[in-house]
Amino acid sequence: MSRPADAGAIVQQCMLERGWEVTVSEDGSVDGFAPTGQELQYEADSNECWASAPAQPTFDESPEEYRRQVYDAFVSTRACQLEHGAALPAAPSYEAWTEIKGQWNPSSDLPPDMGNQQVLALERDCPVAYP
Question: pLDDT tens across 9-28, in order?
Fold first, then answer.
């Protein structure tokens, strides 16, 4: 099974070929910067690059073992965030997480008033170890 980061790497290469510096995270997200006035071109290139990437399986198409590994990675990341002082509510059970099709991750529970530097520090110190 391909990982989310695999599709992100394809998009990253496509964007680099178009002149955009972007980074890909373990979760497959691709982040970059578009200078003022170039946002529309960046968005168009990004959309075209994502369209060329292989489709990722849906939550229901992912094997149970893989879903369990992702959930366990999220719970481990949450534990790290707690150790680093983040005030977080309880994580959903695995059963509840599967009912919401995996739409919870530890970062979604970070307080909205948490500063950007704190969020970046948590992402650096407590990355999700995707399978």
Answer: 899 999 999 999 988 876 67
| pLDDT tens, residue by residue, 31-88 | 888 888 999 999 999 999 988 887 777 888 888 998 999 999 999 999 999 999 999 9
Say yes or no: 39 and 71 in one domain.
Answer: no
Predicted confidence (pLDDT) per residue in 84-109, tens digit: 999 999 999 999 999 999 999 888 88
Say if CB 130 and CB 70 are below 8 A apart.
yes
Residue 24 inside a domain? The answer is yes
CA atoms within 13 A on the CB side of 4: 17
pLDDT, residue 1, reads 43
32: three-class secondary structure by DSSP: strand
Q: Kindly state whether residues 48 and 68 are assigned to the same domain.
A: no
Residues contacting 99, CB < 8 A, separation 6+:
none
**Residue 54: partners with Cβ closer than 8 Å, 6 or more residues away:** 2, 6, 7, 10
